[in-house]
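Q: Predict the bound structure with pyridoxal-5'-phosphate.
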Amino acid sequence: MVKKDIDWSSIGFGYIRTDYRYSRIWKDGKWEEGGLTDKSEVTISECAGVLQYAQTGFEGLKVYETKNGDIVAFRPDLNAQRLQSTCRRLVMPEISTEDFISALDELVRANLAYVPPFGSGATLYIRPFIYGCGPVIGVAPSPSYEFRMFCTPVGPYFKGGVRPIRIMLSDFDRAAPHGTGDIKAGLNYAMSLYAGEMAHKAGYNENMYLDAATRTYVEETGGANFIFVTRDGRKVVTPKSDSILPSITRRSLMVVARDYLGLEVEERPVRFDEVEDFAEVGLCGTAAVISPVGLIHTKEKDILVPSGMEEMGPVLTKLRETITGIQMGEIEGPAGWVHRIC
Ligand SMILES: *Cc1c(COP(=O)(O)O)cnc(C)c1O
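A: Predicted complex:
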């Protein structure tokens, strides 16, 4: 396969148009046959449910070239399931796991020239989404939907080495109890933009959100879950809450911590006032896998994480190496984690 002439190490996390995307329409109560198209623009009603009432949900996953040249995706069945739960909550038709994965396979095989080579640090980012494209003027579910999946090559998340980030305890809330925090809905991101701008203007990379009801417990950032490592380096703790988005990276890391590194793992409510007791703090998500946090700013004080601002702590480093080793086919993963596309 002749790869596109792209400088893989210098591309960032942005949209690069590729040759094909997958599209499938739902109307008159059923999914039509889907397929690839080279049209990267969509034309919809000015009154579409997505435009008027934000009826849309999305997913994000990565496709890699492994050491032996296979093209693989990491646990795409979990992305399919999470999209199904987003669809149920937003009253949109669901795509079966089987159809989701065959769309992924078709999309990637048609865009093989854009899969960054093994070792480049770059990956092919996949963006599946479903939105209401039919007209609604009263508040109601849209009469029709498009399921679409495109891909774009993205560069290494950390150029020139992993660097700890600085985050800020936000005055805003991300998700209400019994709200939509546990689904990947566009609306959760729309309302996070303002708080995100405030954090960036103040000189921080991300917002840290607490539970909206009591402002006592740690939830997550705008787009990543937290994991914490205890001072003895033996236990990985992650917050438990119904309003956190269930990160596939975080769920996988907890399994890796327990089964590959022999660490204790705990998913439980984590009080904000406990955070100072941990030795390492990490953010997990598909984009960076793990970003180390070096500093947490609050109005009262700055919490300096013991692992510091220079490098990622030892336990998070080991976790990151192990999971990326599994993703890249250098370490044998649990059954079913690595989906081979070709
Ligand atoms: C997508 C997302 C994550 C990370 O989930 P992954 O499946 O690991 O990519 C975490 N938090 C929020 C709010 C998200 O939208």
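A: Residues 249 and 286 are 6 Å apart (CA to CA).
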